[in-house]
Design brief:
Order of helices and strands of chain B: EEEHEEHEHHHEHEHEEHHEE
Strand order of the largest sheet of chain B: 6-7-8-3-9-10
Radius of gyration of chain B: 19 Å
Helix content of chain B: 25-40%
Order of helices and strands of chain A: HHHHHHHHHHHHHH
Largest interface: A-B, 41 and 50 residues
Strand content of chain A: under 5%
CATH architecture of chain B: 3-Layer(aba) Sandwich
Number of strands of chain A: 0
CATH superfamily of chain A: ABC transporter involved in vitamin B12 uptake, BtuC
Structural class of chain A: mainly alpha
CATH topology of chain A: ABC transporter involved in vitamin B12 uptake, BtuC
CATH topology of chain B: Rossmann fold
Helix content of chain A: over 70%
Number of domains of chain B: 1
Number of helices of chain A: 14
Number of domains of chain A: 1
Largest sheet of chain B: 6 strands, mixed
Oligomer: heterodimer
Number of strands of chain B: 12
Radius of gyration of chain A: 21 Å
CATH superfamily of chain B: P-loop containing nucleotide triphosphate hydrolases
Distance between the termini of chain B: 47 Å
């Protein structure tokens, strides 16, 4: 009897490598910036901070940069990169469309309305630095509800209706955000709004981290627990039903989970493009389409990726910062085209 | 395992369909376009909830079972099998284990063995590592049947399994289903294939069962004229002895 090869290569080496890369990326992300800080110092400071050690008073300035400015920013980059990658994987399976990304449901465009309203009209001024995030999250929530209600049918949420409704709504929300930008009383407000629309981690503090991290971890856990169902959904709704999946309920739950994750991530980082669309495909090219594998690798790869994107955003035009969306595209597109050509990836069709 | 449809109705499409498939039998459903064949089948594999009637598996109400339990007993090859991502053939077949698995269960050696065995049964073991999207129509159909077999079902439901296949693959697929299948309920377009491969045939017209029984008793020229509006001549296959129909276009026939 011949052996039939039904197993994929084990993931452990790749996952271990990605974890090491992530740890290295975090240290590099903290060390690199307009004011470079030597690696040994970074490690000393991090050790002092986590174990309650002491540092000489002369290092206080650098310590402040490492602990209060760079570390929360790097960690948030990791969380956002991981979250967007995972949401991209889930949404592509949920709407069964290889071109879908976390923003296809109109959630980020919805968030941009709230964010630009704060940036240009000065709403929620009493909330201080959190005004933008809160407004972005609230309007993301409102957009999610609108898309859900408009796309819903008696037979549940169907993939094509979801994509069409989300895309149509996204145009509406973007138009509204653009209108706000052009009505902005002064150029600086318009610039701030545009910067947010392209994604930015500037001005991040420890305060933004816990909620985003908790939602990302919980959401990723939920999706991992449903990885087999995501595989089933990729086969078509009727086939998924014959595999014992309650398609209507599963899709409704996925919609809520991915919308919540997207809303929170967009609120802290703006609409960072490309990551949620291409990272899932990059990962599938390497480990295959099985969601039990993709959902383990995608967050690790996405986390490191966005840390380096943010480092580039800080360094390339220092002391100015570039929007993250510009760099994700500049880094990601060549990388993606290279991998696609090299590996003969079918990419959702012949 | 016996499958029975008892008065299954779907408003405006299917009316009071009653038929059964005894354990190990291959039972066919034939009928003109729009006669409710696929709708009837969708009620059986639970993509559609009938407005009346029951689907019984050895006397148990299938529609009252949790979806996961019915998926362990009844597998189906549907018309909408469309794979969006680059799954390998082995991964597609392994999805048949889904109803047997909890959220964090790993694939066991037995799962891998079942996948390998099913691929062998459909003569597709050499395709295991291939991307499903690169397969030909005949290969896809065989792989999807393997996926259904991996579910270890008592009943296999097939919606036009010979669709888009050339004659060689049509015969291969039906012979395969007869050889490896448990109880089978299948919709077929081709009356001669139904006559050659089914133990029993039911004819649907306007959403109602108008005839049922052994192919030789059911697929008569009179019935074909009444249901399909086509003149037919009955001949006996010279080697297999199965009843076969030769069709004449109404305007051309004498």
């Amino acid at each position: 009897m011949t052996t039939v090869h039904t197993r994929r290569r084990a993931l452990h080496p790749l996952v271990t490598g990605l974890l090491v890369a992530l740890a290295a990326s975090i240290v590099c992300g903290v060390a690199l910036g307009p004011v470079p800080i030597p690696f040994p110092r970074v490690l000393t400071f991090l050790q002092a901070a986590t174990t309650g050690g002491t540092i000489p008073a002369t290092d206080a300035g650098q310590y402040h940069i490492v602990w209060d400015i760079r570390l929360p920013r790097v960690l948030l980059a990791a969380v956002v990169g991981a979250g967007l990658s995972v949401v991209g994987v889930a949404i592509q399976a949920m709407v069964r469309n290889a071109l879908a990304d976390p923003y296809v449901l109109g959630i980020s465009s919805g968030a941009s309305v709230g964010a630009t309203a704060v940036a240009t009209l000065g709403l929620f001024a009493s909330l201080g630095v959190y005004a933008l995030s809160v407004a972005a999250f609230l309007s993301a929530l409102a957009a999610t509800a609108l898309v859900y209600l408009a796309a819903r049918t008696r037979g549940g949420l169907t993939p094509l209706r979801l994509v069409l409704t989300g895309t149509a709504m996204a145009y509406g929300f973007s138009a509204l955000a653009m209108l706000l930008v052009f009505q902005a009383p002064h150029g600086e407000a318009a610039r701030a709004a545009m910067f947010w629309l392209l994604g930015s981690l500037g001005g991040v503090t420890w305060g933004s981290l816990p909620v985003a991290a908790a939602v990302t971890v919980a959401g990723t856990g939920y999706l991992l627990a449903n990885a087999r169902r995501l595989n089933g959904l990729s086969m078509g709704d009727e086939t998924a039903t014959t595999l014992g999946i309650d398609v209507t309920r599963t899709r409704r739950h996925l919609f809520v989970v991915t919308a919540a994750m997207t809303g929170v991530l967009v609120a802290v980082s703006g609409a960072v493009g490309f990551v949620g669309l291409m990272l899932p495909h990059l990962v599938r090219m390497v480990v295959g389409a099985d969601h039990r594998r993709v959902l383990v690798v995608a967050p690790l790869a996405g986390a490191s990726f966005l840390i380096w994107v943010d480092v580039a955003a800080r360094l390339l035009a220092a002391p100015e910062e570039l929007p993250l969306g510009v760099i994700t595209a500049a880094l990601g597109v060549p990388c993606f085209v290279f991998l696609m050509r090299r590996r003969g990836y079918v990419f959702g069709g012949k | 395992m016996e499958l029975g449809l008892d008065g299954v109705s779907v408003d405006g499409i299917v009316h009071d369909v009653t038929l059964s498939a005894a354990s190990g039998q291959v039972v066919g459903i034939v009928g003109p376009n729009g006669s409710g064949k696929s709708t009837t089948l969708r009620c059986v594999y639970r993509a559609l909830r009938p407005s009346g009637g029951a689907v019984l598996l050895d006397g148990q109400d299938l529609l009252a079972m949790p979806l996961k339990e019915s998926a362990r007993r009844l597998a189906a090859l549907t018309q909408d099998s469309h794979v969006e991502f680059d799954f390998t053939v082995a991964e597609v077949v392994a999805m048949g284990r889904l109803p047997h698995k909890g959220a964090f269960d790993r694939d066991t050696d037995r799962d891998h063995d079942l996948v390998a065995r099913s691929l062998r049964q459909v003569d597709a073991e050499h395709l295991a590592g291939r991307t499903f999207l690169t397969l030909s129509g005949g290969e896809r159909q065989r792989v999807l049947i393997a996926r259904a077999l991996v579910q270890e079902p008592d009943v296999l439901v097939l919606d036009e399994p010979t669709n888009h296949l050339d004659i060689r693959h049509q015969l291969d697929v039906l012979a395969l289903v007869r050889r490896v299948g448990p109880t089978v309920l299948t919709v077929l377009h081709d009356l001669n294939l139904a006559a050659a491969y089914c133990d029993r045939v039911h004819v649907l017209d306007g959403g109602r069962v108008v005839a049922g029984g052994a192919p030789a008793d059911v697929l008569t020229p009179d019935l074909v004229l009444a249901v399909f509006g086509v003149r037919a001549h009955l001949v006996v296959h010279p080697t297999s002895g199965a009843p076969q129909l030769l069709f004449g276009h109404p305007e051309v026939s004498p």
